[in-house]
Amino acid sequence: MSDSIPVEPLSFRKVLALRGPNIWTNITVLEVWVELADLQHASTHEMDGFNDRLKAWLPTLVNHRGSIGERGGFLEQLRRGSNLAHVLEHVALELQFLAGNDVRFGRAVPTDEPGLYRVAIEYMEETVGRSALELAKRLVLAAVAGEEFNVQDEVAALRELAQDVCLGPSTRSIVDAAKR
Fold first, then answer.
1. How far is the C-alpha of 152 from the C-alpha of 150, rounded, in Å?
2. In this predicted model, what pLDDT tens digit does every residue of 125-172 receive, in sequence order?
3. Would you give the end-to-end CA distance of the chain in angstroms?
4. Long-range contacts of 77-82 (CB under 8 A, 24+ apart)
5. Do the beta carbons of residue 40 and residue 114 sit within 8 Å?
6. Using one digit for the tens of pLDDT, what is the confidence trace for 67-86?
7. Counting beta carbons within 10 angstroms of the beta carbon of residue 94, is it exposed (0 to 12), middle (13 to 18) or buried (19 or more)?
8. SS3 for 152?
9. Beta pairing class for 106-110 and 29-35
């Protein structure tokens, strides 16, 4: 029997809410320190069925341009091979978008520590952003393991949360005008 503590295959060392201008951008982002542990060398093009599961669960990922800069660019990056921190970034953004929050900015960069990435994910409402991040983690891990995942129910719950905590369109306009 081993005394070692099992390591999660994808975990968050820390999650910081950056609410003003920051090292990433001038908008609000969650900065997530993502540990890939045993998945640090995993590439999306090498995992049987991973890309197909992800595209089936989130077909709207086709709208993500990725570093290629055109519609479908992120899916092309998946086909060529990408790391799971980058995938987590795009999935978290797409889940927020599906919940009604128009967010687009994300970045994933490796650190000097093997398997550790810093990921920035735009959010409109912190609670929704954090929930989308946790949901993205579960979805990515299910895709890696080849497990079932009920995306529709999960997105519906996230959308309900967003409706509960986010400002309505007219109130949002007033707040945005006041900030300017």
1. 6
2. 999 999 999 999 999 999 999 999 999 999 999 999 999 877 566 655
3. 60
4. 77/44, 78/44, 78/45, 78/51, 78/54, 79/44, 79/45, 79/51, 80/45, 81/43, 81/44, 81/45, 81/46, 82/43, 82/44, 82/45
5. yes
6. 888 999 999 999 999 999 99
7. buried
8. helix
9. unpaired
